């Protein structure tokens, strides 16, 4: 971009959705968007799979035991280009605020864990699908491909990108986004209310977000959703479930490009919207020390290759491609060096 956007406010949502209810959650999201814009925010960030809620049950029980709840999630997942999606776009445009929201995205018979990007004019520049659902999440979500590993140039808040949860552990993704000039990075988590392992908790994952800021010299905006008693009652079916899934788990933070946190620690039970100011001018000072796409690289030793090809399980060959065998033979000969 030719000029650096002026400092702006970012809003982070810890308020939960109306769990597993698409219509009511969209209505709630529109109200939160309006509230953040009224406060002066130019970007509002929701946690992972906020719409209409994270499938916590996948960590607690088997597929047969969870199938009815998973079917309910399927029925309430968001379809891009639907009326519900348009309502979110209209809210962003009406209030002149960019939105990044974790969604359960449904396409065909598959649900994806996605980040929905909406610009201040209501347009959708990117739907970013999680590359690899973590552990038990594969019971519910399909995986994305490299075609949406992109940052987007927004109207008013610079170059914007984002990862979902443990994508922050995947080697190379930070380099791929830094190479595109990412200035504001959304680090979306669902909630830190599953007591299964330290690596899934708040402190470990906050460290990942903070490290991302230092490695990429970008602002990192992180949000996770508060789990209420109503959600616990919906998810937990036994005393055993209650040992691992509880209320709380909310989180909101912004890390500056040098890794400094800009907010005091948020109470994990406090549901609401939290705000911080982002000044993109600070990025250049971090890059004077470490420019991860410039003077602090060694491409002669370490290189990252990102495949951004869109994949499909089926390829149709039409009549005009009747000479496909000839093309394939020629390609193979080129690859193996036959003259």
UniProtKB/TrEMBL annotation:
Keywords: Hydrolase. Transmembrane segments: none annotated. One of its GO terms (molecular function) is nitrilase activity. InterPro entries: C-N_Hydrolase, C-N_Hydrolase_sf, Nitrilase/CN_hydratase_CS, Nitrilases_CHs. Belongs to the carbon-nitrogen hydrolase superfamily. Nitrilase family. It comes from Tumebacillus avium. This is CN hydrolase domain-containing protein. Residues 8-280 form the CN hydrolase domain. Coiled coil: none annotated. PROSITE patterns: CN_HYDROLASE, NITRIL_CHT_1. The active site is at residue 48. The keyword Chloroplast does not apply. Gene3D superfamilies: Carbon-nitrogen hydrolase.
């Amino acid at each position: 971009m030719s000029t650096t956007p002026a400092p702006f406010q970012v809003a982070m949502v810890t308020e939960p959705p109306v769990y597993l209810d698409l219509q009511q959650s969209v209505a709630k999201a529109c109200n939160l968007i309006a509230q953040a814009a009224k406060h002066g925010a130019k970007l509002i960030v929701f946690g992972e799979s906020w719409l209409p809620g994270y499938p916590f049950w996948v960590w607690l029980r088997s597929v047969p035991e969870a199938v009815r709840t998973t079917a309910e999630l399927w029925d309430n997942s968001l379809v891009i280009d639907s009326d519900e999606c348009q309502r979110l776009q209209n809210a962003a445009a009406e209030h002149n605020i960019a939105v990044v929201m974790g969604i359960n995205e449904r396409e065909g018979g598959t649900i994806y864990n996605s980040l929905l990007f909406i610009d201040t004019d209501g347009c959708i520049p990117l739907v970013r699908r999680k590359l690899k659902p973590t552990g038990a999440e594969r019971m519910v979500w399909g995986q994305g491909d490299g075609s949406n590993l992109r940052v987007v140039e927004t109207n008013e808040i610079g170059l914007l990108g984002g990862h979902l949860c443990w994508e922050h552990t995947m080697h190379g993704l930070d380099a791929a986004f830094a190479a595109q000039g990412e200035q504001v990075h959304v680090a979306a988590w669902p909630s830190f209310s599953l007591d299964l392992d330290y690596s899934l908790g708040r402190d470990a994952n906050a460290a990942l977000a903070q490290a991302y800021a230092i490695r990429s010299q970008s602002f990192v905006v992180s949000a996770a959703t508060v789990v209420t008693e109503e959600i616990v009652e919906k998810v937990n079916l036994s005393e055993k479930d209650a040992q691992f899934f509880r209320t709380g788990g909310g989180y909101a933070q912004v890390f500056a490009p040098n890794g400094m946190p800009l907010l005091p620690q948020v109470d994990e039970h406090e549901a609401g919207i939290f705000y911080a100011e982002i000044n993109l001018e600070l990025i250049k000072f971090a890059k004077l020390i470490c420019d991860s796409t410039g003077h602090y690289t060694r491409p002669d030793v370490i290189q990252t290759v990102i495949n951004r090809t869109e994949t499909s399980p089926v390829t149709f060959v039409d009549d005009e491609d009747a000479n496909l065998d000839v093309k394939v033979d020629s390609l193979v000969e080129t690859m193996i060096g036959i003259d």
